[in-house]
Write a structure and sequence with these properties.
Layout lengths: L15 H14 L3 H21 L7 E7 L4 E4 L4 H8 L3 E2 H4 L5 E4 L1 H7 L3 E5 L9 H8 L7 H4 L3 E4 L1 H4 L5 H22 L2
Parallel strand pairs: 1-3, 1-5, 5-6
Antiparallel strand pairs: 1-2, 2-4
Helix pairs in contact: 1-2, 2-9, 3-9
Length: about 190
């Protein structure tokens, strides 16, 4: 700006309508309305497919959680993680408890949330496993959480958990598929 170069600052995406608004704005700004409309039509069709699958799964309460052993964080309302959960037709335990944004939480708070399933980031390249899964499964106390006890931990690529773009729809599709796999596997196991 100081050099006279136009700068466009986009707001962070918190909902699917935010994705639509940003793509529309960018299409207009760069005279790419037709391409923007094509992308939006594709995304809308994928969102409708996700919505059509809602009746096939229970209305689970999820907690997007991270903990590298030094403290835990949960994603509440006004986050892309919350938007991802909503696109799947599910509930965010942290948002329902009144958390906004990404908030540090203590382990005791996990028992208040008691989610049906956890959503955690996949390990970084070169790591042997998810640090968050290790924390959840190694603590004698946390193993008593229903989701941990029943092995209901969905692991998604970290880039999708913070998808602040049209990839939010990719994240929701991946989450839905992962939860369907987890819950189908548990049902078939008895």
């Amino acid at each position: 700006r100081a050099q006279g170069i136009p700068v466009l600052a986009l707001t962070s995406i918190e909902t699917y309508p935010d994705v639509r608004s940003t793509l529309t704005l960018l299409g207009e700004l760069f005279a790419q309305q037709a391409e923007s409309a094509r992308l939006l039509a594709d995304l809308d069709a994928r969102v409708e497919k996700l919505k059509a699958s809602w009746p096939t799964r229970p209305r689970l309460r999820l907690l997007v959680y991270s903990n590298d052993g030094t403290g835990g964080w949960a994603a509440g309302s006004q986050t892309t993680a919350n938007a991802m959960i909503q696109l799947c037709g599910l509930r965010n335990a942290a948002a329902e408890a009144g958390l906004q944004g990404h908030k540090q939480i203590d382990l005791e708070r996990l028992f208040e949330f008691d989610p049906d399933a956890f959503v955690v980031a996949a390990p970084a390249s070169g790591e042997g496993g998810s640090p968050t899964v290790a924390v959840l499964e190694s603590s004698g106390t946390l193993r008593n959480l229903r989701a941990v006890r029943k092995q209901r931990i969905a692991v998604l690529p970290a880039a999708l958990l913070s998808a602040d773009s049209p990839r939010l729809v990719d994240a929701a599709e991946k989450l839905a598929a992962e939860l369907d796999r987890i819950f189908a596997g548990l049902e078939s196991a008895g």
